[in-house]
Design a protein that fits this description.
Blueprint (H helix, E strand, L loop, with lengths): L1 E12 L2 E13 L3 E6 L5 H7 L8 E6 L2 E2 L4 H7 E4 L12 H8 L7 H14 L15 H13 L5 E5 L7 H11 L5 E5 L3 H4 L4 E6 L2 E6 L1 H20 L4
Helix pairs in contact: 3-4, 3-5, 5-6
Pfam families: ABC_tran
GO molecular function: ATP binding; ATP hydrolysis activity; ATPase-coupled transmembrane transporter activity
Keywords: ATP-binding, Nucleotide-binding, Transport
């Protein structure tokens, strides 16, 4: 269970501190949770709270009873994180070396580690890319590798922050299908409303607040209405 209790996030700004996530209380236990919202709404900030990439300025966040501020390393072993741009995660020269890096804690010997990495690549259908430079991969291949590297350590939860945003339609569908097939619990931040609708529960974030929390179709309808409201207001403005 992921639990937030009055968790908020503030950042420094030119005019002083700015609140990017207002106090939020949630329990996330469903197998599939999606988070939607406009750019700058605070949804990625919320996602980063879930595995301790960001610590709350006030309140608390815990995963299976572990506090993200006090037990950050243990939390991150339970909660994997996939970024929008896989280039932020792929740091080794070749595909197999990148997965092997994730396995350095579980497999101390290099030969054993590479064998385990090869098994991970085979599981995700990219064993043929093992010796390829990560810089020579397509966008879809990079994102698939980033996901494989995170899941190689077998976390119990995967948080994915807009993992299909930089991909074409075909690769977006492939990555979306993969994410919804994994045994781990999934928290997915996305602009893809069709993908968001596949979740068990959807949060709508706006202005640093969770403004709707519920069944996906109803949440997406709420988000659409929210997104269309400024346009309607503009259309009715006089000269």
């Amino acid at each position: 269970m992921i639990s937030l209790r009055g968790a908020s996030v503030v950042v420094p700004g030119a005019a002083g501190e700015a609140t990017v996530l207002h106090p939020t209380t949630l329990d996330l236990g469903e197998a599939r949770v999606s988070i939607v919202g406009g750019n700058g709404s605070g949804k990625s900030t919320l996602a980063r709270l879930l595995n301790g990439l960001i610590e709350p300025a006030a309140g608390s966040v815990s995963v299976d009873g572990l506090d993200t501020a006090r037990d950050g390393a243990a939390v991150r072993r339970r909660v994997g994180f996939v970024f929008t741009d896989p280039g932020a995660q792929l740091i080794m020269p070749t595909v197999i070396e990148d997965v092997a890096l994730s396995l350095r804690r579980a497999h101390r010997g290099k030969r054993e580690r590479l064998a385990a990495a090869g098994a991970v690549l085979d599981r995700f259908g990219i064993a043929a890319l093992a010796d390829r430079s990560v810089h020579a991969l397509s966008g879809g291949q990079k994102q698939l590798l980033a996901i494989a590297s995170v899941l190689a350590t077998d976390p119990s939860v995967l948080v994915a922050d807009e993992p299909t945003t930089l991909l074409d339609l075909r690769n977006s569908r492939l990555i979306g299908d993969l994410l919804f097939s994994i045994p781990q619990r999934l928290v997915l931040v996305t602009h893809d409303l069709e993908l968001a609708a596949r979740a068990d529960r959807t949060l709508v974030v706006d202005g640093g607040r969770v403004v709707f929390d519920g069944e996906p179709d109803a949440a997406i309808a709420h988000y659409r209405a929210l997104a269309e409201a400024p346009a309607r207001a503009t259309e009715h403005e006089g000269p």
